[in-house]
Amino acid sequence: MTQKTSLESETSASATTTLSRRNFLRTTAAGAAATALGNFTIFSRQARAAEPLRVLCWPGYEERDVIGEFEDLYKTKVEFKIYIGGEQMLQFFAQTPPGTFDAIISDAEYVQKLKASKAIDAYKTDGFAELANYHPKFRDFSPTKGEAAGTVYGIPTRFSFYGISYNTDEMSAEEATDWNTLLDQKYAGKIGMFDWYLPNLGNASLAINPGNQTPYTISDDQLAKVKEFLTKLRPQIGMFGSSNQPIAQAMLAGDIVASPTGDLDIDLKLAGYDNFSSTIPKQGGIRWQEVACVCSASKNKDLALEWVKYMTSPKVQSKLVYTKAFKARGPNMKIVDYWDDEQKKLLSYVPDPQNPGKMLVETLIDRSMPRGLPTNQPEQAWIDIFNEFKTA
Amino acid sequence: MTTVPGAPSSKYMKTPNDSPLKVWFLAPLAIWLTVLFLLPLVFLLWIGFWRVENFQAVPDLSLGNYQEIFASFFSRSRYGLALVQSLWVAATTAVFAVVFSYVVALAIAFAVPARWQRLALLVAIAPFWSSYVLRLYSWQTILSRNGVINSILKQVGLSEYRIDIIYTQVATRIGLIHYLAPILIVILYVSILAIDRVLIEAARELGATRWQAFTRVILPLSRFGLMTAASFAVIVSLGDALSGNLLGGGAGASIIGKLPTYAGMIMSDYSSSTNLPRTSALATILIAVMVLTLAVGFVLADKARRRIG
């Protein structure tokens, strides 16, 4: 049995015992974050008594439908601290004492940042039987591979795409298969863009280097061409959205007709609007994926690994990617066994007429590359290009 | 004080103002300011001097963040252009918001019977009771291409006059004015209420027209309130990112160009990079601009008050 106190008591203990600079910084930062973020209520008193598993994650993982079976099976309680955005995840992690969290759901590219701060450990993939049902692109673990053979820092649990979402009354399916369509004069001021450099520069990288499997590993010359592409795209942009919601709203209102954000059509279709669709252009598109990691300071690693294993099951993923608040896709292809026809159609787990023997989602996965971090240039150089594009 | 001969000498009566304990009554204010303003501000300023190593903020006293930001102030990231956009949007918003609020405050103070004034004020500030974000989304529905206004214009056969202001800084200003107006109305109503009515009546009785009474008595005596309201409007507008994002579309067009606001850039930078020190430095620059604005507003308001005096 592990002896784990609450975060609150740990924080106050660190503040009162040794007031070293590090402790002071940590405590002050936590206090400042609590004030600034306003939702620093971490865990309930009731749950604390049961020595729970503690997970830092995106929304959805905490829903009863998703976690209930695990809690019943292991007779434990899983407590979740929800974050929205990778930067917030890193802030939450940095502002809590080591050992606060047992597991983290991270965006795949943030694994690199978690590794740098020694927050997570690699673990063996032996014994994860469900990986056999994963699409091959999720079995190569390219962004999260461990140093030793057969180890990973994270296993994918949920993903989706940054392709082109479009209004079918305004843009044809054929047009949507080419990034260059966005440069067409008739769409000037009619494109909405997600306000984040990483997926947009990744997509632009693919637009100029079609099929590049590593769109974030490009030369300075290629980066200059990415900038050129974005400069041409700027007059086409009608709005930047800080999240999917304002962009979907703009599409619905007719203020924009397309967006390289991907998947906006899912929510719009569910709301009863059938004139929206999405695809990944032929040059390729960026894919986001969440992965389950085990914290290096966890005293509950075995249970954390069992939870990771649980998250790989198709049944759990079928619920995880179809929560009330959010729809995405699952890497376990057996997920379809738990869905009705409508769900399969909505999330593209239906036969692809262009590629017999494959589901549409498999075609899209094949055409997509995981979102990553710039490797040949500093991150700031890419952010500068995006800022310059925004202010052009 | 006169002393009655033969009477015992009367003792000096102490008031609470003379008590040495009076300083303790300032404690709540001092604690409030220290905990909720000074400490967070100092912390923010301090982080601006930190650096990032291996994606983690490391305490330091480096000017690196400021050097980098100012090196790309009008090139690369071009924060300077965003700051110019912010100042333009904030200044014009303040002018429109103050004029609008002043008219409303005047109407409440002079056109509404005294017994109904409180109710009128309550109605005028009613929008303040609803969520700011909700109000912005409502404006999105009203102003968008297929929104309420354009739908009505289409219905009455005036579709060629459709408005196209969503995702421009005009829309940003509308959102900000809707946010600011209730607060400014209260500030201006209170300042109008402080004007001695006898002065207005005297002006009228000495032959001044209503317009002359307004321009020569009411307006000069409202100057202090107007300056205070304008300073407040500029500062709030400079710091707001929501209206610029939801109604201004993140980089809405103005006569300066299609540029984001500075607050929007800070938000975007914070969520883009694991670089809290740089974001803090960016925020510190905005605070410096705000303090400067406040100082100018204070000087102008003080001048106005002296003139009134």
From TrEMBL, chain A:
<keyword id="KW-0732">Signal</keyword>
<dbReference type="GO" id="GO:0015846">
    <property type="term" value="P:polyamine transport"/>
</dbReference>
<dbReference type="Pfam" id="PF10518">
    <property type="entry name" value="TAT_signal"/>
</dbReference>
<keyword id="KW-0574">Periplasm</keyword>
<dbReference type="Pfam" id="PF13416">
    <property type="entry name" value="SBP_bac_8"/>
</dbReference>
<dbReference type="InterPro" id="IPR006311">
    <property type="entry name" value="TAT_signal"/>
</dbReference>
<dbReference type="InterPro" id="IPR019546">
    <property type="entry name" value="TAT_signal_bac_arc"/>
</dbReference>
<dbReference type="GO" id="GO:0019808">
    <property type="term" value="F:polyamine binding"/>
</dbReference>
<protein>
    <submittedName>
        <fullName>Spermidine/putrescine transport system substrate-binding protein</fullName>
    </submittedName>
</protein>
<keyword id="KW-0813">Transport</keyword>
<dbReference type="InterPro" id="IPR001188">
    <property type="entry name" value="Sperm_putr-bd"/>
</dbReference>
<dbReference type="InterPro" id="IPR006059">
    <property type="entry name" value="SBP"/>
</dbReference>
<dbReference type="GO" id="GO:0042597">
    <property type="term" value="C:periplasmic space"/>
</dbReference>
TrEMBL record, chain B:
<protein>
    <recommendedName>
        <fullName>ABC transmembrane type-1 domain-containing protein</fullName>
    </recommendedName>
</protein>
<keyword id="KW-0614">Plasmid</keyword>
<keyword id="KW-0812">Transmembrane</keyword>
<feature type="transmembrane region" description="Helical">
    <location>
        <begin position="119"/>
        <end position="137"/>
    </location>
</feature>
<keyword id="KW-1133">Transmembrane helix</keyword>
<feature type="transmembrane region" description="Helical">
    <location>
        <begin position="87"/>
        <end position="112"/>
    </location>
</feature>
<feature type="transmembrane region" description="Helical">
    <location>
        <begin position="23"/>
        <end position="49"/>
    </location>
</feature>
<feature type="transmembrane region" description="Helical">
    <location>
        <begin position="176"/>
        <end position="196"/>
    </location>
</feature>
<feature type="domain" description="ABC transmembrane type-1">
    <location>
        <begin position="83"/>
        <end position="300"/>
    </location>
</feature>
<dbReference type="GO" id="GO:0005886">
    <property type="term" value="C:plasma membrane"/>
</dbReference>
<dbReference type="InterPro" id="IPR035906">
    <property type="entry name" value="MetI-like_sf"/>
</dbReference>
<keyword id="KW-0472">Membrane</keyword>
<dbReference type="InterPro" id="IPR000515">
    <property type="entry name" value="MetI-like"/>
</dbReference>
<keyword id="KW-1003">Cell membrane</keyword>
<keyword id="KW-0813">Transport</keyword>
<dbReference type="GO" id="GO:0055085">
    <property type="term" value="P:transmembrane transport"/>
</dbReference>
<feature type="transmembrane region" description="Helical">
    <location>
        <begin position="217"/>
        <end position="238"/>
    </location>
</feature>
<feature type="transmembrane region" description="Helical">
    <location>
        <begin position="281"/>
        <end position="301"/>
    </location>
</feature>
<comment type="similarity">
    <text>Belongs to the binding-protein-dependent transport system permease family. CysTW subfamily.</text>
</comment>
